[in-house]
Design a protein that fits this description.
Shape of chain A: globular
Distance between the termini of chain A: 49 Å
Distance between the termini of chain B: 24 Å
Structural class of chain A: alpha/beta
Structural class of chain B: alpha/beta
Order of helices and strands of chain B: EHEEEHEEHHHH
Largest sheet of chain A: 7 strands, mixed
Helix content of chain A: 40-55%
CATH topology of the largest domain in chain A: Rossmann fold
Strand order of the largest sheet of chain A: 3-2-4-5-7-6-12
Largest sheet of chain B: 6 strands, mixed
Strand order of the largest sheet of chain B: 2-3-1-4-5-6
Largest interface: A-B, 23 and 21 residues
Radius of gyration of chain A: 21 Å
Shape of chain B: globular
Number of domains of chain B: 1
Number of helices of chain A: 13
Number of domains of chain A: 2
Strand content of chain A: 15-25%
Order of helices and strands of chain A: EHEHEHEHHEHEHEHEHEEHEEHEHEH
CATH class of chain B: Alpha Beta
CATH architecture of chain B: 3-Layer(aba) Sandwich
Number of strands of chain B: 6
CATH superfamily of the largest domain in chain A: Thiamin diphosphate (ThDP)-binding fold, Pyr/PP domains
CATH class of the largest domain in chain A: Alpha Beta
CATH superfamily of chain B: Pyruvate-ferredoxin oxidoreductase, PFOR, domain III
Oligomer: heterodimer
Strand content of chain B: 15-25%
Number of strands of chain A: 14
Helix content of chain B: 40-55%
CATH topology of chain B: Pyruvate-ferredoxin Oxidoreductase, domain 3
């Protein structure tokens, strides 16, 4: 298929259809409205169902229902709406229901603003709702990658019987880039013998997250933790110019695009910089990060938050390398020039033997 | 080659579609492109802008903080973005609606009264964006006229294809103006 120019939000929506998604339940919020706009038109064309629910809470519970019946189902929102959905998300994690949730992040906290941000990182990778649970979290950085990760997201959701989150931001959702779709494959989808499809001729399936016996609930938690351990093999990442890098920039999504430009600009000035880009944020590519940072003297995270990813980078590097933060928030986007200045400052302070107040 | 362009004006002047056309024209030529809109509580008469990158290489960062070219259709856009243009960069001004002089002395400036020209020559000031886009194409050769026409066919819905000849004419008007006025209206780099 030839390349077409598409908005990230629209490309995500089309990719979901091609991944076999036939159900979407959502509630409007900027900057992700093009997803529902697109699916409202497209889903009926392919025999699917689109519902604009009366609220985010209603929408996520419709997702629970469709997922329980074994359907490929998706919802999307942004910060405040994702917060409203947390109850439903933890219920789905507890009941082990597969679905895809898209968060096109905007500035927070509270109602915040509508411009791009990455300040929902903790909420996405640490669980978000109550109880011990995890989502698989995938963070695309281009419109093409938004498409490529969508099919993967549905496959992972089915394989692990777990909600998968696609974590984007306002820029990725709104920007247009060329994309190429592969033809919709009639792939063998996983059987879902656990789904509530009508109990004729078999014992009823029960989908629930309620375990009143603490011993049973502990057992269920252990089972979930084993599943999260098994997910570790699903790590995805990108290395850019990391082989000889003395300073490694780390970022995901839009911030990683900016950091990549900074690496090129730094290299042009003789600074050996590189970029490590986690694509899966949970599971986190810990081994790959450590490998990429083996020769580096310092690490700088570039993020649209006041420092969330930076904590995981320090943790995953086991506090062996100084990790600094360059963060912009509230809908402000890091400028490559400003990040380059920070890179130069860090490299120079390293030469003078100074440590930076912002590192650990 | 890497071209970073910011296009700005009032909502309704066709700034967003001008940027999309440019990006699509780049795509038609097999280049790497990106288009980022300003988005928000905006409306007709409010301000709108978009960033377009056209590159032979993969676009690392699609976010433009120092454009090579700034195209402005109204005065607030000039005031907002003039300072960001790369030293020695290009500035295309809609002089029908911008009655102030740019402050920078190092830019190559082309002023065209596109709103008036659209109305007077083509009888439709809604194609004034295409006039200034034509001038941009002539001055930078970032994409060819043929690619822009090809892009029009993709961007416009079928029932609007009757407008392609008018848009074509507007683009050519801009190209001719840029040819004829280049030396008159471009200040040398100071």
């Amino acid at each position: 298929m030839a390349k077409v120019l598409m908005k990230g939000n629209e490309a995500l929506a089309e990719a979901a259809i091609r991944a076999g998604c036939r159900y979407f339940f959502g509630y409007p919020i900027t900057p992700q409205n093009e997803i529902s706009q697109y699916l409202a038109k497209r889903l009926p064309e392919v025999g699917g169902v689109f519902v604009q629910a009366e609220s985010e809470i209603a929408a996520i519970n419709m997702v629970y229902g469709a997922a329980g019946a074994g359907a490929r189902v998706m919802t999307s929102s942004s910060g405040p709406g994702i917060s409203l959905k947390q109850e439903g998300i933890t219920y789905m994690a507890g009941a082990e229901l597969p679905c895809v949730i898209v968060n096109i992040q905007r500035g927070g906290p509270g109602l915040g603003g509508i411009q791009p941000a990455q300040s929902d990182y903790f909420q996405a990778v640490k669980g978000g709702g109550h109880g011990d649970y995890r989502l698989l979290v995938l963070a695309p950085a281009t419109v093409q990658e938004m498409v490529d990760l969508m099919e993967k997201a549905f496959d992972l959701a089915d394989e692990y019987r777990n909600p998968v989150m696609i974590l984007g931001d306002g820029i990725l959702g709104q920007m247009m880039e060329p994309v190429e779709f592969s033809e919709e494959k009639e792939t063998l989808r996983l059987e879902k013998p656990w789904a509530t499809t009508g109990a004729k001729g078999r014992n009823p399936n029960i989908i629930n997250s309620l375990f009143l016996d603490p011993a049973e609930l502990e057992k269920h938690n252990h089972h979930l933790q084993q599943k999260y351990d098994r997910m570790r093999k699903e790590v995805l990442w990108e290395n850019y110019q990391t082989n000889d890098a003395e300073l490694i920039l780390v970022g995901y999504g839009t911030s990683a695009r900016i950091a990549k430009a900074v690496v090129d600009q730094a290299r042009a000035q003789g600074i050996k910089a590189g970029l490590f880009r986690p694509i899966s944020l949970f599971p986190f590519p810990k081994v790959a990060l450590q490998e990429a940072c083996k020769k580096s003297e310092r690490v700088l995270t570039v993020e649209m938050s006041m420092g969330q990813l930076v904590e995981d980078i320090r943790y995953n590097l086991e506090f062996k390398v100084p990790v600094h933060l360059y963060g912009r928030v509230g809908g402000m986007v890091p400028a490559a020039r400003a990040v380059l200045e920070e890179v130069k400052r860090l490299v120079n302070s390293g030469k003078e033997g100074k440590t930076h107040d912002n590192s650990f | 080659m890497l071209q970073e362009i910011i296009l700005a004006g009032f909502g309704g002047q066709g700034v967003m579609s001008m940027g999309q056309l440019l990006a699509y024209a780049g795509l038609v030529e097999g280049k790497h492109v990106s288009w980022i809109p300003s988005y928000g509580p905006e409306m007709r008469g409010g301000t709108a802008n978009c960033s377009v990158t056209i590159s032979d290489e993969e676009v690392s960062s699609p976010i433009i903080t120092e454009p090579d070219t700034l195209i402005v259709l109204n005065r607030p856009s000039l005031e907002k973005f003039e300072q960001d243009v790369k030293p020695g960069g290009r500035l295309l001004i809609n002089s029908s609606l911008i009655d102030i002089e740019p402050k920078r002395q190092d830019l190559q400036v082309l002023k065209i009264p596109v709103t008036e020209l659209g109305r007077e020559i083509l009888g439709n000031n809604r194609v004034s964006n295409m006039i200034i886009l034509g001038a941009f194409v002539e001055l930078t050769r970032a994409v060819s006229l043929e690619s822009v026409i090809g892009a029009l066919k993709k961007v416009l819905p079928e029932y609007r294809h009757n407008l392609i000849p008018l848009n074509h004419k507007a683009l050519e008007t801009g190209i001719e103006l840029a040819k004829g006025r280049e030396f008159l209206h471009f200040r040398s780099c100071g």
